[in-house]
């Protein structure tokens, strides 16, 4: 216990290292562009917060870089993150259910076909996947943005792992009651999986929200742009004369939803993280 | 894979399970096996300058890539970058986790304050660090210049590398922190008490008792961090330096992107993708084998 004060000191220092970049971003979002452009960013908030956020939201800065309205980009990111999370969870629940509760010819083959995708993140096969999207004429569409990111085995493995812990006697009981597999899925498996679904949802929502390379490649149509990609496009080559106040306001808005999800759903987040990666 | 289940514990049917598997299999086939196959196929072809004709060239693309000094330089750079990101993120996370594992008040508040950067996208993390270290407008960038250090990551390659390493590691610490803390908290208190009674100093206890018990977690995290540094940091590099100045921050994944999208050299880009796939599969296998052999709690 002797060393406890040091622990406080180090932890506080750690928190500061994490918080300071965010603090500066918040400060930057409350001043005018010329103050920042001169290099005189103060350490205290300025009076222009409301105005900057409104301009960022509507895409109406007066300067030379016209960003897309952050409101629109946030909506695009939200749709992408929600669809990826919901889609992955839905297809994984079904496939894990099939693998665990049935014995059928080709079962192991199906399992391995899915399992092997675990090893290769989308970035590795990015260019050929892009060409497939061109062949399917799915570039510049929401479907092209979202569906390829659903191909991953993590969620399937997690649900398989969890289904194996559900007592097998439930199946027997369901059969005695005359319930078929789909009924069993709906009335027994799904209600038992709620916690796992919530945990996975948090992880996948963040995964979807933070996608970068894929949206950058697949979307040229600026009205479909996501906020993370849109934000870095506003920076360009990082010129001092950028409208940094608007950029910083946009950065805050790009961070807020996923950070809020992590903080508000912390319990599920940690469960989801430590269990998907086992 | 699982313990054999008696027939009464299973449902019967062949069509239904395949139907349930169908959505995932279709998506996997379309967006995983097809492109992966395309990558392998294209890595064996070479297109002419106009993209009109392509001929089969066997392993020539691979030979070219592996003999290309700029590719080899990017490979070395990627090792340096990934090694630095992983060690920086792992060491600081372990240190913070050990502090947070102590019996202190407000531990859960500290925990919350330390885990949220996980949610910040790599590209956004880059924007935050750019805003602090911009040579003309960043608070630290100006301080460095005022102190007589010529700081400009847009001109100086080493400084650019340093900045992308720090920004990438910053974002990854909270992930490692969560796993180290979970690992520390799963060590039985009795083990630690026994060591304390034997009179071992706290530092000695940490290195002889705690750290060996954490080593499976550490190894798992090392692989995850390396994969993160290989691929997910694309956003950091693209937002901060675009691989420059020169090629000072061009990692392998960034090069795949430049060759495939900007230079439209598909054969070479595909060969590079295949090499990356082999690297990742190798890392994953190493992890499985290590975990099987060495993990004994």
Describe this structure in words.
The complex is a heterodimer of chains A (278) and B (297). Chain A has a domain at 73-218: MetI-like fold. In chain A, 68% of the residues lie in helices and 0% in strands. Chain A has helices spanning 4-28, 33-37, 49-58, 70-101, 107-115, 126-135, 142-146, 154-163, 169-176, 181-192, 194-209, 213-218, 227-235, 244-264, 266-276. Chain A is globular, with a radius of gyration of 23 Å. The model of chain A has no long low-confidence stretch (mean pLDDT 84). Chain B is mainly alpha-helical and 297 residues long. Chain B has one domain: Orthogonal Bundle (MetI-like fold). Chain B has helices at residues 15-42, 60-67, 69-101, 107-115, 122-133, 139-146, 157-185, 189-197, 202-232, 234-240, 252-262, 266-294; strands at residues 45-47, 54-56. Chain B has a two-stranded antiparallel sheet. In chain B, α5 (122-133) crosses α7 and α9 packs antiparallel against α12. The model of chain B has no long low-confidence stretch (mean pLDDT 83). Classes of the chains: A mainly alpha (278), B mainly alpha (297). Chains A and B meet through α1, α4, α5, α6 and α9 of A and α1, α3, α4, α5 and α7 of B.
């Amino acid at each position: 216990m002797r060393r406890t004060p040091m622990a406080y000191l180090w932890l506080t220092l750690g928190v500061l290292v994490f918080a300071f970049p965010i603090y500066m971003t918040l400060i930057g979002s409350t001043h005018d562009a010329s103050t920042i452009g001169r290099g005189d960013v103060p350490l205290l908030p300025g009076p222009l917060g409301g105005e900057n956020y409104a301009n960022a939201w509507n895409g109406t800065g007066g300067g030379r870089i016209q960003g897309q309205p952050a409101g629109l980009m946030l909506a695009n990111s939200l749709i992408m993150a929600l669809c990826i999370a919901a889609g992955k969870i839905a297809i994984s629940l079904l496939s894990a259910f099939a693998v665990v509760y049935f014995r059928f010819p080709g079962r192991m083959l199906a399992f391995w076909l899915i399992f092997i995708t675990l090893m290769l993140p989308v970035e590795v096969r990015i260019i050929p996947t892009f060409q497939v999207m061109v062949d399917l004429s799915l570039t510049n569409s929401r479907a092209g943005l979202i569906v390829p990111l659903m191909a991953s085995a993590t969620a399937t493995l997690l649900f398989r792992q969890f289904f194996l812990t559900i007592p097998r006697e439930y199946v027997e009981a369901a059969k005695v009651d005359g319930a078929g597999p789909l009924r069993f899925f709906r009335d027994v498996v799904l209600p038992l999986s709620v916690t796992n679904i919530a945990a996975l949802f948090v992880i996948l929502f963040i995964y979807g929200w933070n996608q970068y390379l894929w949206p950058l490649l697949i979307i040229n149509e600026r009205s479909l742009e996501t906020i993370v990609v849109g934000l870095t496009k506003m920076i360009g080559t990082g010129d001092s004369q950028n409208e940094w106040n608007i950029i910083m306001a946009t950065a805050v808005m790009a961070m807020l939803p996923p950070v809020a999800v992590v903080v508000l759903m912390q319990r599920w987040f940690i469960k989801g993280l430590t269990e998907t990666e086992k | 894979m699982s313990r054999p289940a008696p027939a009464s514990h299973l449902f019967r049917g062949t069509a239904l399970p395949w139907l349930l598997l169908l959505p995932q299999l279709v998506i996997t086939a379309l967006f995983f096996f097809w492109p992966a196959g395309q990558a392998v196929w294209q890595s064996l072809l070479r297109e002419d300058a106009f993209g009109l004709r392509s001929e089969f060239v066997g392993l020539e693309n691979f030979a070219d890539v592996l003999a290309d000094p700029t590719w080899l330089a990017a490979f070395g750079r990627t090792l340096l970058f990934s090694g630095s990101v992983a060690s920086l993120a792992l060491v600081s996370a372990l240190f913070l986790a050990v502090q947070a594992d102590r019996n202190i008040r407000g531990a859960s508040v500290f925990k919350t304050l330390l885990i949220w950067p996980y949610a910040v996208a790599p590209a956004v993390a880059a924007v935050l660090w750019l805003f602090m270290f911009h040579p003309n407008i960043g608070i630290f960038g100006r301080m460095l210049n005022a102190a007589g250090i010529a700081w400009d990551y847009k001109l100086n390659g080493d400084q650019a590398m340093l900045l992308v390493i720090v920004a990438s590691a910053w974002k990854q610490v909270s992930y490692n922190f969560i796993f180290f803390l979970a690992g520390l908290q799963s060590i039985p208190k009795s083990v630690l008490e026994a060591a304390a009674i034997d009179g071992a100093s706290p530092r000695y206890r940490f290195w002889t008792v705690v750290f060996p018990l954490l080593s499976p977690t550490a190894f798992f995290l090392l692989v995850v961090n390396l994969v993160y540094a290989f691929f997910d940091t694309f956003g950091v590099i693209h937002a901060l330096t675009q691989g420059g100045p020169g090629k000072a921050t061009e990692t392998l994944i960034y090069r795949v992107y430049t060759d495939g999208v900007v230079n439209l050299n598909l054969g070479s880009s595909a060969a590079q993708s295949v090499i990356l796939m082999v690297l990742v599969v190798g890392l994953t296998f190493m992890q499985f084998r290590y975990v099987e052999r060495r993990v004994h709690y």
